[in-house]
Design brief:
This protein is mainly α and about 130 residues long. It is built from four helices and no strands.
Length: about 130
């Protein structure tokens, strides 16, 4: 289907979903390629730093926030997470950890989220 007649050709729900998934996979692939390039650039910088300054410098973790926009709609993802919490499919502290970009790998991580952002939860205290 060409782009010029895309709107005139009716599509099934399966075709629309497939196109959406393909678009998402393309964006994720593009983002992964950019992350790999940045990681390689950091490696080169680390090597140059060691060569000239004899430091053992290397960032602990590469984190790129793609932000909101055409490639990523943070508010849509947040709304989906809120729906999953309301349905009982996702723990609220995991959703809050994602929202505030906090670790959520261990129970200690989740307890810290509960204490800071969920004052009504057991073990949490009210912060104003």
């Amino acid at each position: 289907m060409s782009e010029t007649n895309a709107e005139t050709q009716p599509r099934t729900a399966t075709e629309i979903t497939a196109a959406s998934v393909d678009y998402d996979l393309t964006i994720r692939s593009l983002q992964k390629a950019w992350e790999d390039c940045v990681d390689d650039a950091l490696f080169i910088c680390s090597c140059l730093d060691r060569a000239y300054h004899k430091d053992d410098w290397w960032p602990n973790e590469l984190r790129i926030d793609w932000g909101d926009g055409v490639l990523y709609d943070r508010s849509r993802v947040w709304a989906e997470q809120q729906q999953m919490v309301a349905s009982g499919l996702l723990r609220p502290e995991i959703a809050l950890a994602w929202y505030y970009d906090l670790p959520a790998e261990t129970e200690a991580d989740l307890q810290a989220v509960r204490e800071k952002y969920m004052p009504a939860a057991k073990g949490g205290e009210k912060h104003e």
